[in-house]
Specification:
13 helices, mainly alpha, 3% strand, disordered C terminus, elongated
């Protein structure tokens, strides 16, 4: 086993349930404030028990600071529909509800505004924007939708997007001659094989996410590379909050191996075919590919 493979195998264990792989969804790793435990789950009118459970899990497991926790909780409430456009977001009210300072509220709303979820206008205040304005490719919004009422639509849309992106990436990546990346792809397959044998779903999912991210980078298309975070997010939410692969299988491992072999030999058609087969055997994709949806 290579040094990289050994490192990943020893660094990730099933007990580390708060870890995420490449392109991880937690992009607010702020240091915890002494008062971080004071941020309570959403309790505004219209909230529900499921939303509160998700918020507590997200805030507790990700080690977010006050700012990150508030972004997470408000984002989930907006995406779930508990905070709609008919209700202004008053900073003072938010601060009181979550027991955080105006500075924390202001910075959190700026983050949500950058994601297209809210807009702030003079004499109007801060309001939730329509779904058509949201940055639906933002990994946070992908995550919030995947664990909210829109979970089925979100996962289907992600899988359909992967079906369009990854076979093309595999075809373009064939024969690029990047020995270092080829070696890392082989390492990831080796890691997945050991993880599968040991029943280590977390390690398998981390190596899987790394594999797909590397493959898209190897394609040599900067626009495709920009979408690698979407694929990582899709893997993160495909099977649950921790594991990126719903059920790691020998069939999945075999497809990964075939992709590596095709890339090494420069066989673009075989690489694309193996990737399509991989996506087809994935439990979630199987529901939507290749049969088209009815409109």
């Amino acid at each position: 086993m290579s040094t990289l493979a050994h490192t990943m195998m020893t660094a990730a264990r099933p007990s580390e349930t708060g870890l995420a792989g490449p392109g991880e969804l937690d992009r607010y790793p702020y240091a915890e404030s002494p008062g971080a435990d004071r941020v309570s789950p959403p309790s505004w009118e219209g909230g529900n028990a499921e939303l509160g459970r998700v918020a507590r899990r997200a805030a507790g497991n990700r080690g977010r600071g006050l700012h990150g926790q508030l972004v997470q909780q408000l984002g989930q409430m907006i995406v779930s529909g508990d905070l709609g456009a008919d209700r202004p977001l008053v900073p003072e009210e938010i601060g009181q509800r979550f027991e955080v300072s105006r500075t924390v509220v202001r910075e959190s709303l700026r983050v949500l505004e950058a994601k297209g979820l809210v807009s702030a206008r003079p004499n109007v205040g801060t309001r939730v924007r329509p779904v058509s304005d949201w940055n639906l490719l933002d990994p946070d919004i992908i995550e919030w939708r995947a664990f909210g009422p829109q979970r089925d639509d979100q996962r289907r849309e992600l899988n359909e997007l992967r079906w369009m992106i990854e076979p093309l990436a595999a075809r373009l990546a064939a024969g690029h001659g990047r020995d270092d990346v080829q070696q890392r792809l082989g390492d990831m397959v080796e890691i997945m094989g050991h993880a599968l044998a040991q029943g280590d779903g977390l390690t398998f999912s981390r190596a899987d996410a790394e594999f797909h991210s590397l493959l898209i980078q190897l394609a040599g298309n900067r626009m495709l590379e920009h979408l690698s975070g979407i694929v990582s997010a899709a893997l993160q939410v495909s099977g649950g909050p921790v594991t990126g692969c719903d059920h790691p299988t020998e069939a999945s491992l075999t497809c990964h191996s075939r992709i590596v072999e095709a890339l090494a030999s420069g066989d673009s058609q075989a690489a694309e075919s193996a990737m399509r087969q991989l996506l087809t055997v994935h439990p979630d994709v199987e529901r939507v590919v290749p049969a088209p949806r009815e409109h």
